[in-house]
Every structure is written in C-alpha cells, then in structure tokens.
Amino acid sequence: MHEMAIMQSILEIAEGEARKHGSKRINRIKLKIGEFRGVVKDALEFSFDVLRVNTPAENAELEIETVPIRAECPNCSDVDISINDFTMICPNCGAILSITSGREMEIEYLDLE
Ligand SMILES: [Zn+2]
C-alpha cells in the first residue's frame, strides 16, 4: 500500500512547516491529489489515522481534493479530453496524448495553530 509512504512524507512536510513557524499543532491539512497517481482516497485517510498519532497533526482535519485526469492531443488542440481508462491515445486521431492535469501530489493548504 503506497498510500502509507505517501502519507508519511506528507506528514513529514507538514511537521517541518509547523516547526518552521514555531507551531505545535496542525489544525487542518488540505491535499490535492491527481487521479493519475492511482492513490486510493480511503487508504490515504486510513494511513493518516494511523500515522498522525503522537504528531503535531494528531487532531488535524484531513481534506483531500481529487484532481481528475485531463489530457490534450498535440494535433487536435481544441479537444479537451478526460480519461477514464488510462488510455493515452486520442479518440479523434490516434495520437499520443499529453497529460495536462492529474499528476498533482501536494499540500495545498496547511492550517497551523
Ligand atoms: Zn487527436
């Protein structure tokens, strides 16, 4: 379950930020996770519940925003394509698509006390 490793590094970043600002408590963490990452939200929330014990984020509220995968075709520039099955081929001309969003993996917002 790679969600555990992801949450571990998210908490490390959050704790680092809290330390930097002399804060002992994290109230809220908002994450932005792209669908392309294949992260299971429930597993991420579970990992958070396990890992936050005895950290400044122990009582923090976790919010996860999922960013859908969007892609565009190099030939059909006006076509905005949403991908559901990870097929990186343009349905219009068969060219290989480039991902424009959905790779996100970041802390968007951190509320420190
Ligand atoms: Zn195309």
How would you describe what is shown here?
By secondary structure, this protein is an alpha+beta fold. β3 and β4 (80-82) form a beta hairpin. α1 packs across α2 (41-51). The protein has 2 helices and 6 strands; from the N terminus they run αβαβββββ. The chain has helices at 2-20, 41-51, and strands spanning 26-34, 61-67, 70-72, 80-82, 98-101, 105-112. 27% of the residues lie in helices and 30% in strands. The chain has a domain at 2-68 and 102-112: hypothetical protein PF0899 fold (2-Layer Sandwich), CATH 3.30.2320.50. The strands form 2 sheets. A 3-stranded mixed beta sheet has the order 2-1-6. The structure holds zinc ion (ZN).
List keywords for this structure.
113 residues, alpha+beta, hypothetical protein PF0899 fold, 3-stranded mixed sheet, 3-stranded antiparallel sheet, binds zinc ion
- SS strand fraction: 25-35%
Q: How many helices?
A: 2
Q: How large is the radius of gyration?
A: 17 Å
Distance between the termini: 31 Å
Apparent shape? elongated
CATH fold field value of the domain at 2-68 and 102-112: hypothetical protein PF0899 fold
Output the helix-strand order.
HEHEEEEE
Tell me the strand order in the biggest sheet. Answer: 2-1-6
Helix content: 25-40%
Unique bound compounds: zinc ion
- Helix/strand-derived class? alpha+beta
* CATH architecture annotation of the domain at 2-68 and 102-112: 2-Layer Sandwich
Per CATH, the class of the domain at 2-68 and 102-112 reads: Alpha Beta
Q: Profile the largest sheet.
A: 3 strands, mixed
What is the averaged pLDDT score?
90
Low-confidence stretches: none
Total number of beta strands: 6
